[in-house]
Write a structure and sequence with these properties.
This is MEI1 protein. By secondary structure, the protein is mainly alpha-helical. The chain has helices spanning about 1-10, 15-30, 35-45, 50-65, 75-100, 110-120, 125-140, 155-160, 165-175, 180-190, 195-215, 220-225, 230-240, 250-260, 270-280, 290-300; strands at about 105-110, 150. Helix 2 runs parallel beside helix 5 (about 75-100), helix 5 packs parallel to helix 7 and helix 14 packs parallel to helix 16. It is globular, with a radius of gyration of 21 Å.
């Protein structure tokens, strides 16, 4: 089925949402719900379809062209298509890298536009933000070096006008700039305050990947970002005062992140003791899978 469905997508226009949206969803789940052997073949089939990749390029570009709905919570057919497009491209980036699949057609994206979609949001629905963050995680994990993706729109002239230390940091973080990093971190923090489960999971995962990327590029910058005092305020904002408030997956993952990068001004011995106390009193067998996994990572980090 991958052959006819992917060929059908390649013949469509981005406005053909009724046909494209379920078709892209089918391609997405075909990649994820299959055996590793079949997965490698499926990736090869999709990446060899030039017309499909050209269509995906047009769909992603519509993210900045289509006007947002009046209500940000409303997922229009256009937004649903954009979600499917971003998730499919993120998956193709991931599996192309895993299997070193040959690429017949590259995708090009303006990194500034992608970052601004998260930083400024402009009434984008939650699911679309989550989908774009999945894509952003994929490119960060690959250090912006995927053979499937070409990053364009780097404003090198602006970097040249900054003070020398900033220029050196920007060069180390390329293609990101320091101002983009801090704007993105602040935006991710603000999104966490909404306490939407799906959004929180995506934001924390994106923040984890971003700091990992920064640590590889420039350890001083990564440690500086991880130790921002605002993180401590964010942490206590997320704690709802419930009996097991520290055993929320996003709280545990955030605390693990700060511990990993030795942010002692964010996480104190008192908070660590509180987590251990709540874990000791909890019925571990009844904890949700996401909480158990996050608690395991936290304890390993401690």
């Amino acid at each position: 089925l991958l052959f006819p469905v992917s060929n059908l997508c390649g013949k469509c226009r981005p406005r053909d949402t009724d046909l494209l949206q379920p078709s892209l969803n089918f391609l997405y789940w075909s990649l994820h719900q299959t055996t590793p052997c079949s997965q490698q073949r499926a990736v090869a089939v999709l990446l060899s379809n030039v017309s499909l990749l050209e269509l995906l390029q047009k769909v992603l570009e519509c993210t900045w062209l289509w006007s947002p709905p009046s209500e940000p919570a409303y997922l229009s057919p256009e937004d649903a298509l954009l979600c499917s497009g971003w998730l499919l491209v993120a998956s193709l980036l991931l599996y192309q890298h895993r299997y070193s699949t040959e690429v017949h057609q590259t995708l090009s994206l303006d990194l500034t536009e992608v970052l601004n979609a998260v930083i400024f949001r402009k009434k984008k629905p939650v699911l679309l933000l989550v989908s774009i963050m999945q894509f952003l995680r994929a490119v960060l994990q690959q250090n912006f070096s995927s053979s499937l993706l070409v990053i364009i729109g780097q404003n090198t002239a602006q970097g040249a006008t900054q003070p020398q230390p900033s220029s050196l940091q920007d060069a180390a973080l390329h293609p990101l700039a320091m101002r983009q990093v801090f704007s993105l971190v602040v935006s991710l923090q603000n999104l966490l305050v909404h306490k939407d489960l799906l959004l929180s999971q995506a934001v924390v995962a994106c923040l984890e990947t971003l700091v990992e990327y920064l640590y590889v590029k420039n350890q001083d910058v990564a440690l500086h970002v991880a130790s921002q005092p605002w993180h401590r305020f964010l942490l206590f904002t997320l704690l709802n005062g419930g009996q097991k408030s520290f055993l929320q997956p996003e709280v545990l993952r955030l605390m693990t992140l700060f511990l990993r990068y030795q942010s002692s001004n964010i996480i104190s011995q008192k908070e660590i003791s509180q987590v251990l106390q709540e874990a000791a009193e909890a019925d571990l067998a009844e904890l949700p899978e996401a909480t158990s996994r996050a608690l395991h990572l936290f304890l390993c980090q401690v």
